[in-house]
Amino acid sequence: MRCFNTCLALLLTPLLLAGCQPKSAPGWSGYGEGDYVYVSSQLGGTLTQLNVRSGDQATQGMPLFALEAENEQAARSEADARLVRANAQLANAAKGKRSDEIAVIQAQLSQARAQARLNADALAREEQLVKQGFVSEARRDDLRTAQAQSAARMDELAAQLRVAQLPARVDERDAAAADTEAARQSVRQLAWRVAQKSRTAPVDGLVTETFFRVGESVPAGQPVLALLPPDHIKVRFFVPESAMGSLQVGAAVNIVCDGCAGPIPARISFISNRAEYTPPVIYSNAQRAKLVFMVEARPSASDAARLKPGQPVEVLPVAGATP
């Protein structure tokens, strides 16, 4: 009888132990995750202003921080002045000489014409006197030379007047235009550098963390703070290989978590094509050390506010759900 009881106990023990094992969960374990927006400057410098703290809600366009920018602002002012000078030179190249300068040339031309008339009259008189034998031919030749000089002077001044009324040569105007464009691009470049020294919020979001304090030196490209937009919260969970055939991107799932006041609807946005072992953050004995695939699902922006990054969740499939 004792032997029978012992044998019966040995037979029933595996069945009793099997009945005590926890049942597999109906869904898949996971956790909340956030796609953070790291706000930085492409230029380094000393942090002079930090307008937000961790936990603040930032709105798009709101000032977040500023770096020391004295050097960039001085360079911008210099570039502005160079642009003003280049524009003035370009405008000057498109004009002739000033009206007063033209008036001087016109007066000189009038004087030359008057002198030419006097020389012409004197030469005519000398020609008569030479014919009558009262003066020598040398005197007449001197007057002819003076007359020729007067005519040449008139031609010279007339040419100067035409040139004074013309704009600069085409090549000079092109060079002035190129200088102006170079100055304008320099202003754009310096404006960008100045703008990099003070950053605003690119999107609405929660300030989750700040990485520097006022007075500290910030390297170029190093994030000063992290933002979490409400629609950047997702859920990452792990599905065993046996269930992968029933999942596809766009399929509906429900997210269950402590304190969520009911299931949160979401849709699968990503399915990994590489298998891995359940990560240590998942503390489910039923799923421990199983070969799984990582899957991500995103709720709507309004529902995402009910989740927190790192929060443990359970993801349940929706029967008959299709993308």
Kindly describe this structure.
This protein has 323 residues and is α+β, with helices and mostly antiparallel strands. The chain is 42% helix and 25% strand. It contains 6 helices and 14 strands. It has helices at residues 2-20, 70-93, 99-132, 137-164, 170-196, 301-304; strands at residues 28-34, 37-39, 45-50, 57-58, 63-67, 198-200, 205-210, 217-218, 225-228, 233-240, 252-256, 264-277, 291-299, 312-317. The chain has a 6-stranded antiparallel barrel. A hairpin with a 7-residue loop joins strand 11 (252-256) and strand 12 (264-277). Helix 3 (99-132) packs antiparallel against helix 4 (137-164). The chain is rod-shaped. The model is unreliable at 4-25 (pLDDT under 50).
Assign an overall shape.
rod-shaped
* Overall pLDDT score: 79
Characterize the main sheet: 6 strands, antiparallel, barrel
Biggest sheet: strand arrangement: 1-10-13-12-11-14
Q: Briefly note the structural class of the backbone.
A: alpha+beta
Number of helices: 6
Question: What is Rg?
Answer: 46 Å
